[in-house]
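pipeline: protein-struct stage 2 | run 1193 | Metallo-beta-lactamase domain-containing protein 1
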Amino acid sequence: MAAQWWVLNAGYVGDRVASTVALLRDGDTTVVVDPGMVADRQQILGPMADLGVDPDDVTDVIFSHHHPDHTINAALFRNARYHDHWAYYVDDQWVSRDAEGFALSDAIRLIRTPGHTAEDITTLVDTADGLVALTHAWWHAEGPPEDPFATDGAALAASRARVLALNPVLIVPGHGPAFAPDPTTPR
């Protein structure tokens, strides 16, 4: 099985901040990853409409971690399950489960990748072109080499090594466009 994916908003960090927001589709599963801060909600909703996806069609929302710049627009998706590191949530239900290895579909699964926060997770997507990793282990292609806000630098290095060992064809970082990892990718 192969899923499809699109970056709805390539994030950035500097004087202003926006998260990289992605849309994933695998059969009946439609996922938004990190619906966080953007300059205008149309930067999320417009590309979705162009793809023929209504916000009410989104089945799942994944938070790489709980910082507001990655979660603030979650309420746009009224029918979704919301996933984090230790549970998923639907209306007033809190369903405990570990993110490690949790599969949302045949081609979309979660793993734990702490470092930026203790609760970080990475979304792994099997696509026709290979594995795509959506993760905050990198802010953008350049890293930064040392995350100034990391709660655990050693854990972050281990998480980066774990993701790279999976040989993803692309990494979709927390605040930038997708990039192909290479020897210059910060470890």
